[in-house]
Amino acid sequence: MKKHTVATLALCLLSIAVFAQPGKNRIKTLEKNVSFLADDKLEGRRAGSKGEKLASDFISTAFKKHKLQPLGVDGGFLQPFEINDGLAVEGNSFLKTGNSVLVLHEDFFPMP
């Protein structure tokens, strides 16, 4: 497992901040935020990617602008947590074909 920093529930909280604005500005701001966060340049915001960093910076900046109270690490909005990105191979992994049981890391190598 890898440790990454991600703004949890950020879009939901960002939406709350947006809806505190009056009238048509809400829709424009929400469209702008969603368009940025869904943009291909964010590379799907995969943990550890440049896109994740861009998204978390964008969200943190919006939180500061709306004067939300930072409760993350070092007085910020981000909190580290561990994720399993699908690359972990458990010791009990096995592959059987017919009557043969293949040996992990000798006969077969699991790929994500």
Question: Could you characterize what this model shows?
Answer:
With 112 residues, the protein is of the alpha+beta class. Helices cover 36% and strands 14% of the residues. The protein contains three helices and four strands; from the N terminus they run βαααβββ. The chain has helices at 10-18, 24-38, 50-65, and strands at 2-6, 79-83, 95-97, 100-102. Strand 3 (95-97) and strand 4 (100-102) form a beta hairpin. Helix 1 (10-18) runs antiparallel to helix 2 and helix 1 packs parallel to helix 3 (50-65).
Task: Give the arrangement of secondary structure elements.
Layout: E1 2-6, H1 10-18, H2 24-38, H3 50-65, E2 79-83, E3 95-97, E4 100-102
Brief descriptors of the model:
14% strand; 112 residues; two-stranded antiparallel ribbon; single chain; 4 strands; 3 helices; alpha+beta
